[in-house]
Model the fold of this input.
Amino acid sequence: MSIGYACLTVGVPNTDMKSCVMKNASEERLIELIAHNLNSLENIIDYNISKDIKLFRISSDLIPFGSSPVNRLPWWDIFAPKLLNIGGKILTSGMRVSMHPGQYTILNSPSEEVVQRAMEDLNYHAKVLESLGVGEEHKIVLHIGGVYGDKEQAIKRFIINYERLEEAVKRRLVIENDDKSYNICDVLEIGRRLDIPVVYDNLHNAINPCDKGKNDFYWIDECRKTWQEKDGCPKIHYAQQELSKKPGAHSSRIRIDEFMDFYQGIAHRSLDIMLEVKDKNLSAVKCINCTSPDNKIKALELEWSKYKYKILEKSQQDYIEIRSLLKDKKDYPVAAFYNIIDKALEKEDSLGSFINAAQHVWGHFKDRALDKEKDKFLRNIKLYQQGEISAGTIKNFLWKMAVKYKEPYLLCSYYFVL
Done:
């Protein structure tokens, strides 16, 4: 069973995706952007390998205007060595990647123009995966689309237009239930009729259920039946509701006790779990650490080195509690560790805690800093206390210091990104 995340990273340097407005999309600019994005993707793949993350969704923004006539570059040829190198890392590590076109890729639209754009977009996504040299178990996930006042006719259009797709797309396409229009029963019916795999999304089902009497595990097992050996391990999407927001909003972090209750119900099944959560890789590492049979305190100590200053900024009491928790080197209090971190991150900022953490971070280079830098830090702290500058101003200064003095401990810290 693999656990992964989607598209972007938190706290991993040089992994951002860039684009531009259409009027600036010259060939020269597009080549520059594609080169940058491929470097970012490779850095993400390297990070995933280092964290033993075996599941990842590649951003549709990898190739700017990838399915638009604006981009007429044969990028798959221009960047073939780079793409194959990245694909080689994916294959060698045993990682599985996927892509997920956005809300405007609508295959069942009554507008032929919209359908044509959807088909072109699906061709683009298939071309990315083919250019990486990965097999058909690396999938493209698609929602069914709109209802347009007549669900039966909309489903018929999806089926008809699916048959029009190129074989390269059909080999990879899988379909997913959504939180508004097509529940898991609808999608299973379509999947069975077309003989294509179905991805189950637990949060979408909670909002747009088919049968409230049946639980997640029932639907997961029904979806498993739509997957064939050539499709690879059945895959699900797992998300938690952000409690303070409207239904369907993904949580900022995976609440680990809730996840583990879910995990216990599927632990004996062979599944890949794509987390859909705002803190991306951070929750993926959390869930992997909580489910890994290799229960070593070093994994938590590594995590603590990244979280510690952020936790100190939020709550000195929680900071002390975690330090105490990690003292027993033979123990592996993984759930308690993450629960304290999550509890601390939910707390309101306080002036005293913020200054305390900033001073600890400053301690990494206070002996190397120039006199003018020392003066600036002290002046910033005073101005912050007086309410004349924001916390962000101080953290931005500290980040520049960490970069200048090449302090790796700080450069990898979540203090600057959470």
